[in-house]
Every structure is written in C-alpha cells, then in structure tokens.
C-alpha cells in the first residue's frame, strides 16, 4: 500500500477570513458608497470589525447569536451600503450571509432594501440551498418585495439545480406574488429552461401558454437557441418556419444562431446555404455572423476557405470591426501568412477606421513568437506599450516567455519581461503564469528560481497544480534540495481532498459534485480515473451518482459497495481507502489513478484522488 501516493485536492475554503477588503470595496464601485453618513473608510472599518467577530466557519445560528450578543456590533450604525458589502463578502458562505442578513433585519432602525433581498436570494440559489430560498421568497412575498428581477434569479437557480418544476411553479404563482403573466414573464421562463437544456419541457409549456399569451419574435429566438444548444439543429430550422407562421420575421440573430451550430458541427455546406437564404430573405448576415464563420473555418484548419470570408463580407456591404480583424489576423497567422497579417494590421485596419484592442496585439505577438520571429514580436509589444488604445496584460507576455525558454534566453530577457510585467505595468502573476514559468525553469535547469516562484505562489494563496508540484519535486530531488522537496511533498499531501455542499433536501448526491471538483483540481479529467470507490450509503445514491457522471460501471465498486461489504459508522473513509488502495495495488501499473467518495449527512459530499507512487 506504501507504493500508492495520496494527494488531497483543496477546492477552497469558502469561509476563509483572509481577504483583501479594500480590494473588495473598490471592486464594488462607488454606487455602494453613496450613504452620506458613512465614508468608504468607515465602511471598511465596520466591515473589518464584523468579519472578525463572525470568525471562521459560522453556522447561520452561530453568526446570528454572535452579532446579536456583542456590544461592539450593536454600536455599529447599519446602512444599506454596509449590508450590501457584508453580503458580497459572504457570497460564498451562505450560512454566515444568512446570519448577517437576519441580524441586520432584526435591528429596529434598519429595513432591508429589495436589492439586499435579491442578493440573499442569489447567494442561497447559487449555493443550492433551495428550501431556505423558498422560505426567503415567501417572506418577500408577504412584504410585497418580489420583483421580476427576483423571479429571474429564483427561476435561474432552481433550473440550474435541476429543479425545473419549481421554476414553473414560480411562474404559475406570479399573480400571488403581485406580478403579471405576460409575454415578458413567459419568455423569461422559456429562456431560463432553454439555457439549461430543458428545451422539450419548455416546448410543452409553450404549447399550453400560447393560447393565452401570444408569442413574439424573441420567443422563437429563445427556442432556436435552445434547440441549437442541445444540437438539434433541424428543430431550430423548423422553428424559423413556425416563426413565420405566427407573423414574426426571422432576424439576423435567428439565422446566426443556427449558423453557429452548423459551424460547431463542421457542416459548412449548410452554413453557405443559410447565408444565401438570409440574403434572399432580405436579412443579410452581420459582422458577428461572418466572424463566427471565419473562426470556425480556421479552427477546422480550412485556412484558404476562411480567408475568402473577408471578401464575401466586403461584397455584401458589411463593415468589419475589431473582433473580425482579430479573427482575420489569427487565421492569417495559422496559415503562415505573416506579412499579410502585418499588412492587415498596419494598413487595412487604419483604412477601415478600426482601432486595435489588447487581443489584437496579443494575437500578433503570439503569431510572431510561434513562427520564431521574436524580434517582430517585441516590436509589436513596443508599439502596444505606446498605444493610446490599450496596454499589455498577462496574456501578452505568455508567448514571449515561451520564446525565452525555447531559445534559452532565460537569465537576461526573461528577467526583463518579468520586470516589465510586475514593475512597469503592475500585473499580478496568476496561476497560469506561475505554471508556465515553473515548468519552463525546471526544463531549463533553473531549479532554484522555480522553487522561489513556487514559494511565492504559496505565500499569495495560489495553489499550484499537482503536475507542477510533481515536476518541481523531481527536479529538486535531483539537485539534492531536500528541504525544498519536503516542503513540496507536504503541500502535495494536502492537495487532493474536495468537500462540497448540496441542498440538504437531496442529501446523498454529494459524490456527484465532489468527484468532479477533486478530479479537476488534480489537473485530471474523469476519463483519466481507472478506479472508483463510491460509498454505497443507499443503492439509489450510488446509481444516481454513476448516471450523473456517466461513469463506466466496470470501474466502480469492483469488489462490491457498502451494501455488500458493510457501512461501518465512523469508519467509512478508512474502509473505502483500504478497499481502493488494495485493488490499485493488485492491478499494478494498469491502474494509475483512483478516487474515493462518499455522501455525508446534511447535504455534504467528499472525494479524494489517489495516484500510484511508481509512475
């Protein structure tokens, strides 16, 4: 069993108190600081005090009790701005957020605004605490605070949680909520269902409602988008004809949605047929349509065909915009036509009166770096730095960093690039930039530098991917950097556990959420996993999780689950780990990755990823 290396993937502690409050306040914008009695500094100070009082990991009841029984909290003057900031602060911690919300509502001198209620609705819905959401909606109904904005949030969250029937009930109860059933509310319901791929259900509802509410063009565009989203483009095309039957004229959005679907399928014959149909119907394609087509052709490596799109667009009288030119430049780069790309950038874009943006420059820099023309890439960077339109971002420098590693110019040029990023443009290194640097430095025999960046990541609470840790660990061991190796191994041991929460009303489905979270954080996909051990608390729970994730039954509970082997109280994890690791050991190197998962009472779920240590 010692040959199997355990790694726990941290998905993130939603109640972590370490937070940059000043950045939070500035990110909310000045609209939250309009209260004439509280300055921004006061709001930040009150926010700090209340956050410290709440502490870490408070339940709803604990948070409420703490705030109600603290003299310091009692002395803080509440304002809508402060409550909004608190709810924003705890947007990923519904229990603390609800405790704060209840505490504020209990103050005699304060009354929640409709915006505060909507924020709380959104928090509960996003965290899928649906019963609490229902209770809050009922409370809002009694106070006459429900708006269509509230309804939109509630519907979206119910449908997102797979509870589309509840979203329909909300629509049915609109009049009881003080709202009207009309074309706007019907379209809202249909759009919410279609965006989450419940298109057939939306269609059935529409067939019932159309006798009472006449559809409009937007109604049919919703269905066109929905059918395309589930790859049933024939139904989308039929909806165009149905639309005409109701006296609604298809617009460029109607056709372009179907064209996008054909592009995704690689069916460009249908794309051109639909373009001709649009022209015949007096509804010519717009620049977005042409950009979609050219991008799809380039992605399919049909470069010559893609490069004919600009001429077709010009002949139709459609004017190019920045996004179109960005796609055009990308296509030219992929086709290896660098001089043509430079001509388009230097001549055609100014002639058309189109200004470049950051993506324009980034595309050119990436193109020149890919073709080992670093000098031209740096010339574009210099031009970008002097531009009135935009400045470099982190993505601007990634191709240049890769070029440094490829050419071996690490000590000089790479240092200059990083100095420009950090000191000149005050760009923060993100996970992708750190990953790129550490991997490149390891391959370039700059192990000490790579490890210093690794420590810098940890200090900034940026968790490196497991593969980054493994690569760096191998390098530091070769250099006999034993202390560094120990620090990396300590982190790796903490890198593979995922704990999630689901609606307590559907307790048991936790593994369906925890497994993807753990696997993703490991830098893997479900297809990489060779063996699963899912605790079989109930047969239905196991069956649901397997179907939800599309797991191969031949990989799951191969020696029987808890129904066969037993469900020891307080020792489920130990039983699952022992079963999984022994089976991984028995199968040898044919079984590299294994996952255990279990549901926990009150709606929790946990999962862990294991990897053999002999890879």
Q: Would you kindly provide a written description of the structure presented here, covering whatever features stand out?
A:
Helix 9 (148-160) runs parallel beside helix 11 and helix 11 runs antiparallel to helix 12 (199-209). Strands 1, 2, 3, 4 and 5 form a 5-stranded mixed sheet that branches. The protein has helices at residues 21-28, 40-54, 60-68, 71-74, 80-89, 94-106, 114-126, 130-142, 148-160, 164-172, 183-195, 199-209, 217-229, 233-245, 252-265, 268-280, 287-299, 303-306, 309-315, 322-334, 338-352, 358-370, 374-385, 394-407, 410-424, 431-443, 447-459, 466-478, 482-493, 510-521, 539-549, 562-565, 572-587, and strands at 4-7, 497-501, 531-534, 593-600, 604-612. The chain is mostly helical. The chain has a domain at 496-612: Thiolase/Chalcone synthase (Peroxisomal Thiolase, Chain A, domain 1, 3-Layer(aba) Sandwich), CATH 3.40.47.10.
Task: Considering the chains and any ligands shown, give keywords for the structure.
615 residues; mainly alpha; five-stranded mixed β-sheet; 33 helices; 5 strands; disordered N terminus
Poorly predicted residue ranges: 1-36
The CATH superfamily of the domain at 496-612 appears as Thiolase/Chalcone synthase
Percent helix range: 55-70%
Shape: globular
CATH architecture of the domain at 496-612: 3-Layer(aba) Sandwich
Query: Which fold does the CATH topology of the domain at 496-612 refer to?
Result: Peroxisomal Thiolase, Chain A, domain 1
Family: Belongs to the PPR family. P subfamily.
GO molecular function, one term: acyltransferase activity, transferring groups other than amino-acyl groups
Domain Thiolase C-terminal: 494-612
Keywords: Repeat
